[in-house]
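Appendix B, Record 12. Input sequence as logged:
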Amino acid sequence: IYTLSLHDALPIWRITLNTMSHSSNYSRLTALLGRATERCDTSPRERANYALTTFILLLMISPSLSAQNALPSLGDRISGTVSLEQEFTIGQQFLASIRRGAPTIPDPLLNNYLENVTYKLASRSQLQDHRLSFVVIDSEELNAFAAPGGIIGVNTGLFLNAQTEAEFASVMAHEISHVSQRHFARGIDEAQAGRVPQMASLLASVIVMATSDAGHGAAALAAAQGRALENQLRFSRSNEAEADRIGQDTMFNAGFDPEGMSSLFERLIAINRFGRRPPEFLLSHPVTESRISDARSREFRYPERSYQEDLEYQIVRARVVGHYAQDKGALVNEMRRALTNSTNSFTRDANRYGLAVALWEAGNYAGASATLAPLLSKEPNRISYVVTQAEILTKQNEPGQAREFLTRHLQINPNNHALTTAYAEALIAARNYNEAAEVLQRHAVLRPDDHHLWAMLAETQGQAGNISEVHQSRAEYFRLLGDFRNARQQLQFALRIEVDQGSGAAVEARLRERINTLEDQQRALQG
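Logged structural output:
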């Protein structure tokens, strides 16, 4: 009562009552208590009250701890605590928080490539639940992650650092293996099995804080947290080794060169050796010499096979390189040299596309089209070439040509995400907002969980003057961000407009039903 502010106390009570089954909350609890301790006076009364408050919290936790002690052995790969459906729900909450808090890349070619490669790997993996969601974060930091429920995320920095498709696939296979082996759920089992001794250490540190110098108690608390973290890291290292082994098997089974894993590891070690700060990926996925040697030794177990590089990886990688290039002119010169020095057809095509992107980024649209022309002549139906040409035409203030160019390809590949998005962008550039909104509305039915698409649709509907539909699209956007309050509010705005316009009972009933559905989804996610 005396030592915890309301701001600090409420989160602790919520964590204690609602979510202590999640391993991360142990760290959250101790962190909150540590912050509260720093605010305490050093008088015995203040420390005693702090100890009493903490002790009550620990007593509330203890019944669930004793029940959790009888968890099943982790010798198998199935969590005894968290079901697959619970993992999916947790993953969707995590994905919503990523969408809210991180800048993501809307480039449909980039997102399509990530989806295609990951599904190719997933089809030959040990995944039980193939519901996957993807996110590409706009960051030059090299990082990738897997979250429970099939959430696969990469920073665009991975494209910058993985020079071949096999290297990129090695990271995706590794992350899929974290999901297939349910490392998140198993981590909860491990954390809960060891929480009783952790809590004993925490309680001892609380007693020290109440009876002696507060600094001694803080040191004891830090030591208790350190032991818990050490145990978690030990378990995490075993997870990393397992994800490497199973991921490399998945790579081979899916037709990717398993040598890509060790070659990427060696590059990361070099980056770490010469860089001032390790890449973010190395902080969560530490690479050691033994880990590299293990990957190398496994390569000899696989039967001999010839591997062929997929040009599509180099295409999307060139788009990322162009996106981040600070000096566009220097990138143009670099790509001209690379094209001149190309030694085979594959590198020549890759470098030619890279030069086209560099020219486009530098604003030389005519030069970009001329550079891309031989590639289109060679492979006129490659979607990435077609989309790039349409993007260049739209930027060149020729949206009519872009639309005409895309029409035939949409007949060949109807509903293709990259082609449809490029077509809508050409319509928007031509100020055909109503038609663009209709195209995006039909496409959103096929991709209801694409928050970039809903944002684009809402903006286009606003330009077309369809205010009720703007609110409805914004509702879907907020839903995907996990902001159900704003989502319901947007639908209520739309309902009010439709009522005022006398749109009819059917429209009003549909909007009310959608509001009810959002409320049900929110309750389901909150468990």
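Residues 1-24, 37-77, 194-214, 224-235 have pLDDT under 50 and may be disordered.
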